[in-house]
Input
Amino acid sequence: MAALLVNPLTAEAFAPFGQVIERAPGGRRIVINDGSCVRHHDLARPQASVPGAISLSLFEAAATPLPAQLRLLERHRQGSQAFAPFGAALRMLLVVADAALAPGAITPGHLRAFVTDGQQGVQLHCGVWHHPLLSLQAGTWLVADRVADEADCDVVPIAGWQLHCAA
Amino acid sequence: MAALLVNPLTAEAFAPFGQVIERAPGGRRIVINDGSCVRHHDLARPQASVPGAISLSLFEAAATPLPAQLRLLERHRQGSQAFAPFGAALRMLLVVADAALAPGAITPGHLRAFVTDGQQGVQLHCGVWHHPLLSLQAGTWLVADRVADEADCDVVPIAGWQLHCAA
Output
């Protein structure tokens, strides 16, 4: 059984796949609202092939049993997809692969796995291969992604691959 | 001193001003991810006068001292603005007025005030008058709004108005 090592999520390591939504020391900070608020500005811009089709939804997720058994990868080529912990500190496992890979070409060596720290969100670039949501706690994620009448989801099964989470 | 009564936030009462982002029983639910997740679908669509200018930011807010002293209302006519509790249960006070009101025409009678329950976000329609973020706890809010080089913020002072929060 192929095993993947999980690394803590950092903006640098995740850059090929998307943005990390977090209060990062190095980001652009703007003091607003008469000094009562710091705006960590412009962390990720949702993208969609059709203007105006970005929407906010809530994903109410069960906790993922560990060790996580991977099932499949999917990609959405017409839009980005962002996840943020909603109303609670929540951690997620991320399993991703480069958007340029053809479905049949993906091997365990192409996969990267990350775990968030409970106060991080992410935005996946358009087309990045990713496992469906693996929330480490039962809870709700805010999702910003494209909505449309037609489906936009390529799927590749990766059954039999397991995630080893040291965190 | 003018006083405003604060009501619990409901989608129905808030409809003239925007959407409530919550796991509402009446909303559209889609079971996804092999049954491990319920998608509360398409709760709010960010709007911007310039396509592609919607961005995700984090607002790191201080707790609002109570009773809340209102300072000003603002409106952003070129885009919607959504707020969601990020990584923690957070409540906010909302003070809003109809987008169609001219700045000089706003009186205390035009204002509506709401309080969220800790597991609710909101999206303000383009141009809705609103007080700057009044977070009841120190914490972080995810914000989805328009980013641009030019400012898009009308402001009206409402100093001397006070909020009475029964919740």
Summary: Chain B has one helix and 15 strands.
